[in-house]
Amino acid sequence: MPAALQRLAQILPADRLLTSAAELAAYESDGLTAFRTRPLAIAVPETQEEVIALVRLCHELQLHFVARGSGTSLSGGSLPVVGGIVITLNRLNRILKLDPDQRLAIVEPGVINSQVTTAATPHDLHYAPDPSSQSICTIGGNVAFNSGGAHCLKYGMTSNHVLGIKAVLATGEVVQFGGESRESIGPDACGLFTGNEGLFGIALEITLQLLPRAESFHTVLAGYQTLEQAGDAVSAVIAAGLLPGAMEIMDALALNAAKAAVHAEYPPGCEAVLIVELEGPRESVAIEKQSLEAILTASRPVEMRPARDAKERLAIWKGRKSAFSAVGRLSPDFIVQDGVVPRRRLGEALRRIDSMSKEAGIRVANVFHAGDGNLHPLILFNGREEGALERAEDLAGRILKMCVEMGGSITGEHGIGVEKREFLADMFNQYEIDAMLRLRAAFDPHGIANPGKMFPGKEAPSLSHHGLHPLEKAGIISRE
User: For residue 159, what are the domain limits?
Assistant: First the structure.
């Protein structure tokens, strides 16, 4: 047995230190199944103290580690590292505190996203970020990748709802960022840590703000002859000054998959559907829905179908939320991209994606958060065909480059991971990337936390520090 495994066995019992080939196979990939790596071992801690002990041992041995929740990352963000370990956090799944008066919850990283809202519902509260995988993805993973969801247009991303983070850095230091107050002084340490893709350390406790549940909803499904028309309708809604809770678009391929998977009902003969949902006080929604109806009517949809009750509203969202998995009925493999374009250029972007798809001879299903221009083209291929993955990846790269050219981003919420790291230089210059590397090294001088992710090529040399931690000097962290 390698020396590292012997030391790990001193922290965890044998049934929570997985090393057999069958056990490792379950963790060799995440949601991006095109990449697979078999780690040295899987560590299954059940307490924060065990997580801290594991990270401190990794720091001592300079052993690479990857923190993992449910493995729903679509960018390879929780892909294991050869010779390293995976620290799986699913058993740290307690809601430690739920305070309806302060409208906050303190949770461990393994808590499932939707469980927060389930716990808050009796108090007429909810947790706003709602990724499509919210019934399985964990809050720790949401923090690592700054997840959004269908309602991010109105409510923002995970970073807008995290008040405090207790974390163990890759050095083994336990720090506290923020707290229970919505008011803060100094650098936004929680915002800095949220979206770090596991390169800084592991969140142990996350303090989340909860919001009152909306009093009223008005959900409309509109069908269009072209994707570009649907995209232009989004621009028209925003230009009119409305701020819907959500605006989502699905194209014909995604619609057909959702119909087959969950028997969703959509207007026939449409190349795209737009879902718009208003929410808020009953009086406000009553006024806004009149404006929305006028705007959508002017956009010349094939059909416009408001949800008549809660059952129809849930049916509309069930089709949208199941779209990613449903596309598996159309193709044995697919790549989900995550680029962002300015809303005003949404129609143009969709037209160009369609053109690139036809040119490459590769089908692309489009499902995305239209309100903030966050595209999720699903590029379909058969991995058993020679060269198919490479052709799909080439098309994905062309789409990402288009997003940057339009003034957008290579990621909206899925992160860089391993999939998009070679495109980082298309969005940032070398000075900016060097600044990111130096920041990463301040948290993780040995580069042991989730190495090989985000940054292209070989990462910069580690930066050592002596005495007071540089982040402590800047007032960003405080030690426990």
Answer: 95-212
